[in-house]
Write the structure tokens for this entry.
Amino acid sequence: MLDPAPTGVTQLLVNWSNGDKAALDEMLPLVYQELRRIAVNRLRRENPNHTLQPTALVNEAYLRLIDQRDVNWQNRAQFFGLAAEMMRRILVNHALHRQAAKRGGGALRVSLEVAVNSFEQKDVNLVALDEALKNLATIDPRQCRIVEMKFFGGLTVAEIAEVLQVSSDTIERDWKMARAWLHLEISNR
Amino acid sequence: MTPERWQRINEMFHAALVLDGQERSAFLVAHSAGDDVLRAKVAALLASHDQAEGFIQGSVFGDAAQLLVEDEAQAMIGQHIGLYKITREIGRGGMGTVYLATRDDDQYEKQVAIKVVRRGMDTDLVLARFRNERQILAGFDHPNIARLFDGGSTETGLPYFIMEYIEGQAIDEFCDTERLSTSARLELFRTVCSAVQYAHQNLVIHRDIKPSNILVTAAGVPKLLDFGIAKLLHAEASRGAATTAMVQRLMTPEYASPEQVRGEHVTTVSDVYSLGVLLYELLSGHSPYHFKTLLDQDIVQVISDSEPEKPSTVINRIEEVTTGGRKGKKLTPESVSKTRDGRPEKLRRKLAGDLDNIVLSQCGKSRPAGTLPSGNSLKTFADTWTVCRLWRAKRRSPTAQRSSSGETLWRSLRPQS
Ligand SMILES: Nc1ncnc2c1ncn2[C@@H]1O[C@H](COP(=O)(O)OP(=O)(O)OP(=O)(O)O)[C@@H](O)[C@H]1O
Ligand SMILES: [Mg+2]
């Protein structure tokens, strides 16, 4: 069975949404651990080749970490945004390590190669995408978050609409623009 | 960029998006009020949109989750398994991760290696098999076999095995760093064979003999790792149900016998085959088999049908090592001989004849069939040793060398069946 969830994450989430930046730093590792634990557990319980359902995974972490009585939908949206951002960091850090390892000629760990090969098939340079997203965030934070939630966080348009409490049409529009903008930004580099 | 301008770009972009070529340009001109920068920006975004079809389509969430799970390895550091505390990662293989762990009792500090099997195996099945084999494996008592102490499952449900920690180098790297001569390599190989023979006498097949599973200590003592582990992890494979891909994941195709890659019954003869591949590499530096691709049919075809070049001539090749710990190493006649017997001609002379024959008779096409009873494979070992010994003796006495040609010596020792 799962261990009891760490307490106090709810308060951290609320503090963070009230502008307390330090709360975020405290919260990140807890969320990370929880996501990892759930991912590992699900992969164990279900069959090994099972693909994880992103919303369910993040939602489970949310329900376990956050006391629903003390939060509102904005907090939930923030939590989903946070999870997507975390996935982005994990992948970008990994891509950076991989680049470094390639340059240094160091041997790669086979198991990680498996994961990364699939982006190479998708032909996305994650490091360049990350840079472009940073720029997009200064112009249009919401568009940046939509890309984060969709591409890194695996949420559907409808789910993102629900999290952000706007219509699906708005998400679709923002998504189209963000994608065109990022594509342009990356190809101009 | 001001929010107003960004807003404007967005509006024009979406309005123009539903129009096609001609209309678009007209629309942009009409609505940019002479602001050419604005018009150019929106036009560029529209063009980009049209090219961005597959760009960031789908999601990489699954890959991130995979990394999260992989990161479990990192999370293992500092954790306890039984009485041991994990101190660092030693390495990763196809089936899991090996950690160094210490037992911090008051009385003594002891280091062990713990292999934690990767996620995806059926833990209960692996442990059930382990309980079956435990008596035999834990009872192994041989100076050249790393002890297996215990097995179990981690808190997160992964099977693990606690083994004797061996501080050493993989046998191929050891031989190269120590620049062992051909005869010193043979001597080391012989010791390895004696350990395998011991296990075979106890009816245990290794199934995964290769350099990373044979570490040599600083004192020059070879130690075999992972004895019997492969079977615990893939009884499926021995039942013939395994695909080649699975066998591949479980063992490096370079060392796998034809019956192994075909998913057929594995016997002690399969270990002898892998020892043959190992000897081939120790003596020549080159791999006997090369795969064009890692597709199942290519591997099966190469291993089942092609005949390796003789060690004495393969050393003339210039090529790069493609797998294992020596991956990326450039092999030339000079580099290969330098770490062995000095000059290429000298190495060639040593390998030609008996050694060529011995090696190819074990990992080439004339090897004994994979279904021979184990007694025969043991005999093959014994023959090898005898030949090696005679070979060494011959080299010491030049007259003996001239009086018996390698061919006849070899024929006289070959299994008669
Ligand atoms: N008991 C041990 N003591 C010291 N090092 C070990 C021990 N067991 C394994 N290692 C090292 O840890 C690394 C990983 O071992 P592991 O057995 O998982 O993979 P492998 O031997 O490379 O491949 P395979 O999974 O096919 O056995 C290897 O470099 C191996 O030499
Ligand atoms: Mg091993």
In short: Residues B 93, 212-213, 225-226 surround magnesium ion (ligand 2) (CB under 6 Å). Residues 236-245, 370-378, 398-417 of chain B have pLDDT under 50 and may be disordered. The interface with chain A takes residues 1, 6, 10, 13-14, 17, 44-46, 48-49, 51-52, 54-72, 75, 92, 94, 118-120, 156-157, 327-328 of chain B (CB under 8 Å). The longest helix of chain B spans residues 374-396.
